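Kindly inspect this one:
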Amino acid sequence: MKIRRRRSRAEVEQLVAEYEVSGLNRTAFCQQRGLSLSTLVRYRRRQQQRVGEGDNEKRWLAVEVSGVTAVAGGERASGLAVWLPGGWRIEIGRGFDADTLKRLLVVVERR
């Protein structure tokens, strides 16, 4: 019989966040992590309920700084990429239009 270890809230949140940015479907992610599909579904449901209860609270997001620098037209380009739940990704290049980004974020927040 396999003894299961209870995961902390932080571990559950990290696992769910990793799934959401992985780009994998649930089955593939669970196989990769040795996790049952029902456990991942339960963790995601609980986290969504907690987030729904605290909609007005500020939340920290995991950020990864990439060492890769793209070169555009012989000039180093800097930009941002944001991965959202559900596999959505927003990339912003150097010299982006801030007003357009604000309008896009309003639309994303509504979904």
About this structure: Residues 9-53 form one domain. The CA atoms of residues 65 and 110 lie 27 Å apart. The chain has two domains: 9-53, 70-110. Helices lie at 9-22, 26-33, 37-53, 98-110.
